[in-house]
């Protein structure tokens, strides 16, 4: 049930902006059962207090939405990421050439691929490089470029030029957030540009995102994806979040943590 009182409603709006990044006046009006004028007054108050920044179309976004570092993300949803990584690794066949993005979930996939025979891995991620550096059965190719220290991934024209000269059996992409309508959300355009190129160069594209990332839009840079991509998530994903993707003909795989006992 929506919270009572204007202050409680504003606090809830702020929480929604923190977790999902964007919301329209119309959406907030329906959610809280109040008029659009009331929501606009709430947004004006939050903006005046310096807690939100208004954007076009009545949307709102947090003024300071920091990007978590790779070190911070590595410890989050560990079992869920591991289940996603195991499912993804099972798709890879010996003799294939696969493309691995930067990120903690894709890094977990790299760990699962260490023993795969006759495999070529091309990557932009430092985590994947570290996981596969001493594998005797995997050929590793690093796409160079400018290193983003916060994500431990390479971006920029050098990485893009390398991608243009290769094709891949499969590409595995990470995401700060992913929505059915817009695709992958990231902190900056260099990342989203690179992810779009990755998807275009692969026969099959998989987005690896644990349940909390579905429907999230914490930033304003987006990567659109070609038809036929697959979302791989876990059982913590809300059913309505999964349904938003399947309604748009996106294949969704929901993984379960394995019992290692």
From TrEMBL:
It comes from the Bacteria. The keyword Nucleus does not apply. GO terms for molecular function: DNA-binding transcription factor activity. Residues 6-61 form the HTH deoR-type domain. Pfam families: DeoRC, HTH_DeoR. InterPro entries: Carb_Metab_HTH_regulators, DeoR-like_C, DeoR_HTH, NagB/RpiA_transferase-like, WH_DNA-bd_sf. Keywords: Transcription, Transcription regulation. This is DeoR/GlpR transcriptional regulator.
């Amino acid at each position: 049930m929506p919270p009572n009182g204007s202050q409680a409603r504003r606090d809830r709006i702020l929480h929604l902006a923190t977790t999902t990044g964007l919301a329209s006046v119309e959406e907030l009006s329906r959610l809280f059962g109040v008029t659009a004028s009331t929501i606009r007054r709430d947004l004006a108050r939050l903006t005046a207090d310096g807690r939100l920044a208004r954007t076009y179309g009545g949307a709102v976004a947090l003024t300071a939405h920091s990007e978590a570092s790779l070190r911070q993300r590595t410890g989050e949803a560990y079992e869920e990421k591991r289940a996603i990584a195991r499912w993804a690794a099972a798709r890879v066949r010996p003799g294939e050439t696969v493309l691995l993005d930067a990120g903690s979930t894709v890094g977990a996939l790299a760990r699962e691929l260490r023993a795969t025979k006759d495999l070529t891995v091309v990557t932009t991620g430092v985590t994947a490089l570290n996981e596969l550096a001493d594998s005797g059965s995997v050929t590793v190719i690093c796409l160079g470029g400018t290193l983003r220290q916060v994500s431990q991934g390479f971006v920029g024209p050098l990485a893009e030029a390398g991608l243009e000269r290769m094709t891949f059996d499969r590409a595995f992409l990470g995401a700060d957030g992913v929505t059915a309508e817009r695709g992958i959300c990231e902190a900056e355009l260099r990342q989203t540009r690179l992810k779009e190129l990755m998807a275009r160069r692969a026969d099959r594209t998989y987005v690896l995102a644990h349940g909390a990332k579905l429907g999230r839009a914490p930033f304003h840079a987006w990567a659109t994806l070609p038809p036929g991509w697959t979302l791989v998530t876990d059982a913590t994903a809300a059913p309505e979040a999964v349904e938003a993707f399947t309604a748009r003909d996106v294949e969704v795989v929901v993984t379960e943590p394995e019992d290692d006992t």
